[in-house]
Amino acid sequence: MDEAMWAFGRVSGFISLALFTATVLLGILTRSGRPLIALPRFSVTLLHRNFALLASVFLGLHVGSLLLDSYAKLNPIDVLVPFLGSYRPFWQGLGTVALDLVLAIVITGLLRHRIGQRTFKAVHWLSYAMWPIALAHAIGNGTDGTGKWFLILAAASVAAVGGAGAWRLSATFLETSKARQGGMP
Amino acid sequence: MSDTLHIDWTKCDGRGLCTELLPALLARDDWGYPVSRRSRSGNRTDVPIGADSLDAAADAVRLCPRLALSLVGERTSRRA
Amino acid sequence: MTPPDTSLAETLRPQAPAGTFRLFAAGDYAGLQEHLSVFGALDTGSIGPDFIGVLEASGLTGRGGAAFASWRKMAATAESGSAGILPSRPVVIANGAEGEPLSFKDRTLLANSPHLVLDGLLAANRAVAGSQMYLYAAPDSLAGVAGAIAERPDARRIRLVPAPETFVAGEASAVVNAIATGTALPLDKRRRLSEAGLKGRPTLVLNVETLAHIGLIARYGAAWFRSTGSPADPGTRLLTVSGPGPVQVQEVPGNAALGTILHDAGIDARALSAVLVGGYHGRWVRPLDYRISPSGPDGQAVRPGAGVILALPADQCGLAATARILNYLAGESAKQCGPCMFGLPAMAGVLHRIASGEPNPQLPRELDRLSKLVSGRGACHHPDGTVQLVHSALEIFADDVKAHLSGRCMREDGRTA
Which of A13, A175, B80, C6 has the smallest number of Cβ neighbours within 10 A? Predict the structure, then answer.
């Protein structure tokens, strides 16, 4: 049983990270106001949201299964308070930080209409911090984190998110950038 | 009688989701902002919504990335 | 201008100013002493909700630009102030912000007749059972008003708020925003200010000239107010007249003839190519037999707007003048609303190309398309006012447009803009 929990904890963590990577990419695409080939803008937005929620579910499974697993020796306090763990406290702490950030981002996302755009946006920006922290946690804490295939995947993810980030900061990021910079259409 | 979709121009950033959800009611201008295809005496800030578009309009309100849209029922507002 | 009507004057209180010289009757920079000796005392404490009926009978319309019936605004505010389970008492704001570069009437009024404005503010506050009063104007005007308030104990509760010198700072929701947050930018209006304005309270924003008229109507009544002007446009209004000569502020009767206004300002109407009426959000007209009135048929009446008259000498190019104004208006966009932020500079760019003589027949059509795109799409009426100005320019200067498109200008100073 324990063996299963341990394996499930590792797999769910990996899936969660992969989904969060896709979420960040979709989020940047949503911000650009562009459709995704045949997918309209509202579908991109919904996809971004649903990927985020699914990623959060797997994050919950990841944490939950490792809490129940005796080998991981995860203390309930470690779930929310970082850097107190017994095994690799720094790398595990990064995971805790990422979890806290995800909680903040998801809760403010769900309450967007209540709390207003300003608060939502301020917290949502933390996504850009959450993702690299979560990746660092996976590399530093994961059993396979320094494995060759994982590092290759991680490098590809960094390239994708980094590239999207650079695109985000470029002058032609918005679908309407050109028209808004002036000039007759 | 009918409901209206109110556009808060101070929040709208012209991301285009509402125009996809309500293509019969909203077009996009040169800069991406929604343009009501119909107007009530020149007002294109409160877009009249027919019963058949009410669900799509509610989706637009929910999904607008800038929270710039709101549905205003004539029953609930505008006394004077 | 109008000879005093003696038979009417006998039925009025002795102090009632006759004719159209009303708002400045107490003289230059009138202090409380001069104010009281000319207009008599006003017991604002005796004013109640029934005063709204007096205002309705007077036919007073707002003098800030929109020319909305003042009594309606007041009635809506008073109603919101008493409605609901937990009624909140209204706020009354005297709006003296005058962002129109061509308008000087409100600051002239505040400098010369501050007590009349204060009387009107106190009267309006009583009529709507208001709880707070503000006077919002440029810092230069506020110094004089503060002096006037110091002269009388009944006005001590009026709070003074400085207005920035931007074009949109006087828009009603920008006024409320400026008082609430210090930022004079227009707000989205899902609900009317008369329902929920400053801190959610029912809010009445009235132009200072409107309030000065209210100060007089509270004394002399509706019939006196209507004794000048026309039945549809009673009373007097202040105009800022500029052109070849020095800038003047005139008090004219309602429905005044444009020709008379120009004549009184010493401007020869025959030496003009056009007249801009209403300010930068107004309309160009040929100096014909127009009447200055908020209502009336299009070809005969032109709306006073912010009370601005600008005479354009015949040797100046109206297109170049309009292009300069449009540049200014585009720069004065609050840059909150996309269609205005991007549409006005685009319009200004196209008009500038027409004004500078680019022989491209597509340009007027493009200007028209952009006008249609921006109108009715903003938190305030800045785009709509701008579109009105451009429309009138294309209509009035249609011959100039044709000439420009063929590469020449009909006016001597054209092509220099």
Answer: C6
